[in-house]
Amino acid sequence: MTILVVPNADTPLDLLLFVAVGREVAGLAEITLAQNPGLADLGPYPPAGTRVTVTLPAASAPAPPPVVRLY
User: Would you tell me how many other CB atoms lie within 10 Å of the CB of residue 54?
Assistant: First the structure.
């Protein structure tokens, strides 16, 4: 489990999670809201300094880029 801190009042929860993980993870926002009672009551933009407990997913190997053939 990791604790993230909301840097400013213009940062929504989904952006905070995306920056922490580096990619979109299906269901991560819902899991995070379940782990942090009262976080949803703060609205889509939690106040700056709000501490959010997150269980980050295990790192996975990136998918290989698609092969582009010109001819």
Answer: 20
Helix extents (H) in 1-71: 13-21, 28-35
45 within a domain of the structure (yes/no): yes
**Does the residue 63 lie in any domain?**
no
Overall pTM > 0.90: no
What is the Cα–Cα distance from 20 to 8, expressed in whole angstroms?
Answer: 15
4-39 pLDDT per residue, tens: 999 999 999 999 999 998 888 888 999 999 999 999
List of E strands, the chain: 2-5, 51-54
Number of domains in the chain: 1
| Domain membership of residue 8 as a residue range | 2-54
